[in-house]
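Team,

Forwarding the record for the chain on the shared tracking sheet. I've put the sequence and predicted structure together so nobody has to dig through attachments.
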Amino acid sequence: MQSAEISEKLLKAVWLDSRTREHPRTTTDGRPVSILDPGSPNEDGGPDFRNARIRIGGTLYHGDVELHCDATSWYGHGHERDGHYNSTILHVVLAADPAALPARTRSGRTIPLLVINPREALDPHEPFLHPAPSLLPCRNRHHVVADAIKFEWLERLARQRLELKVRMFEERLKELIEEGRRGINEPRQSYPGNPDDIPVPVEEYSWADFANRGVWDQLLYEGVLEALGYSKNRAPFLALAQAVRLSFLRRFDLRDSVTILALLFGTAGLLPSSRTVANLESRLYLRGLRRRWKELRSLYTGPLLQPGDWLFFRLRPSNFPTARLASACFLIPGLFGEESFRRILTAIKEGRTSQKEILALLHSCLCAEPDRYWKHHYYFGPATPHALSGIGSSRRNDVIANVIIPIVLLYARVFHDHGIRDRAIDLLSHLRPLQRNAITGTIERELFVGARLSSALRQQGAIRLFRNYCTQGKCTECEIGRKAGM
């Protein structure tokens, strides 16, 4: 069996298989290896397994493991330049050229290499080579439950999931109010004595606290930027939004794209030296942004992010954080320049506005027209021949479902506006299905025999069903599971 025939997916299965740990193994430099814990699979950028425990020689290491079919892939994938691989303790491969350079981290450390013999590691008759079974316990009995009951259950779960989002935004809203009371950068007051003896303060909020337009705009700004980070860069996007406050950006002309780009890219640590960029167009564009960032740097006193905070690996170029951040910069003037949140609330509250018209308004607020450079670039490098359109329709729908509607529901709760609440929930049921993912695809395939979930509301319910019931073995607490006799 040739190593090229074995996908990295199967190599991961081999690494997790207990027989791999039973064989006595040594690194290529002759040190014995004992795999105490293979670690947890990592679905984001960085090494394939996190938090492994491996004894190499006489030393116990706790860190990450990277797997490749061939040892040369370490340098082929550029891991030696990526700080996310600095904690790698073992490089596991199926084949290695004895003359190949040893893998090194960005910090300069050499990583031990372990070669697994394909013949002893893989048996084509073993079960881990075959597709994994279905994840839904009721997959063979769901047909006894009417689709109407399933859909009703999904919509109930969707409302529960929506409630959790509203509560999360509520906690952040209160944090913003508290930060405004004491000053954003002012530390919390410390008290002498045993902290356990200090009673937990009960914060009280007035109507004036919640009526502050600034905290709602900041809440929306943070939610939108976090959503543009997709699954892999949500945390640094949120950190950036909390570092460069909307109130700070409003000190400048939001339509001045060079200033907004310079502030956000500079703070994000995503303005590389122009000397590292070979493409002439990108080098000139980057020089302009770096020059403007240098002019603005003294005005910004908040924290800075680092290039290593952002993940590029295993992302489509259109989802690179540089491309998403550029889209955010061009989105800000339209969404926050003319009280768009107030216009959104007004449109939802007015009964004469149809749901279709409201959704059209929301999409228009989330449209971002990039400049000539970002229409043809994913990062500061060569241009792409395809024209880029900023934030796509599916991503706008995602922001509407997971950010705008929950914040509008929170507003309705705070100000006891039942009309806005009812119309916002109804809006989610009219929102077209979001982009299909692994979870919603599994629910469609195994509960509805391939039929598509017809609304974003039902998709939200499917996600909660899968995460809170199907994968937790709570069939007897699930409406579908009970009726299916589970």
